Amino acid sequence: EDLHVLHERIVESIHSGLITTNLDGKIYAFNRTAEEISGLKASEIIGKSIFDIFGEEIQTPIEVCLGSVQSDDFRAEHFEASLISKCENRKANFVTVACSISPLNGKNGSVSGLILTFQDITKIRIMEETLRRSDRLAAVGRMAAGLAHEIRNPLGSMSSALQFLQDKNTNKADDSGLIDL
Q1: Which of 19, 26, 50, 158 is the most exposed place for a label (fewest CB within 10 A)?
Q2: Whole-angstrom Cα distance, residue 14 to residue 30?
Q3: Does residue 131 surpass a pLDDT of 90?
């Protein structure tokens, strides 16, 4: 009983969302961080399918993980997914999460389900997009500065030449207005 309590405290203390399922994807554990990220309560989601949270986009990683289980080549699958966070005090919004799916071994060593861990990386992706946008704007700025330089150089030469011609022009013909600055 003490070991069970310790196990539950460890699962609740992890700063990653943690979901365990059976081999059909039916959820039977959903920790506090998973609740915070998804905006769903464990009491509402336990017993439902993992696809109710993430949708069909995680179908392929789950199938790959289950395939590795059947071939005795156990390996975790890492991927990114989106889910709709349904927090009470905020409107529903998309959250990007980094996920890892691993086989869950039973007492006798056989695979009894899957462990899905995930972390909210929405802010990281937003910062990356902001950085990419800043890099693009900086590149446009460098191109504009280079273009201005390329235009300014010939204009400066032409201005100098016109000043020289204006100083040398003693003829007050009708064409002399063409070189006035």
Answers
A1: 158
A2: 12
A3: yes
Alpha carbons within 13 A on the beta-carbon side of 40: 22
pLDDT, residue 6, reads 84
Decide the pairing of beta strands 93-105 and 27-30.
unpaired
Element (H, E) at 81: strand 77-85
Residue where the block lists tokens 């929405």 = 122
86: three-class secondary structure by DSSP? coil
Are the beta carbons of 45 and 29 closer than 8 angstroms?
no
| Cβ–Cβ under 8 Å, residues 35 and 45 | no
Q: How many degrees, rounded to 5, is the angle at CA 145 between CA 141 and CA 151?
A: 145
Which residue in 95, 56, 98, 94 sits closest to 77, CA to CA? 98
Where is 91: in which H helix or E strand? none
How far is the C-alpha of 30 from the C-alpha of 102, rounded, in Å?
15
Quote the mean pLDDT of the chain: 80
pTM: 0.66
Structure tokens at 164: 């020289």
CA–CA separation, 15 vs 33, rounded Å? 6
Cα separation, 121 vs 130, whole angstroms: 14
Distances 149 to 20, 118, 144, 145 between C-alpha atoms, Å: 62, 50, 8, 6
- Kindly state the average pLDDT of the residues 6-10: 82
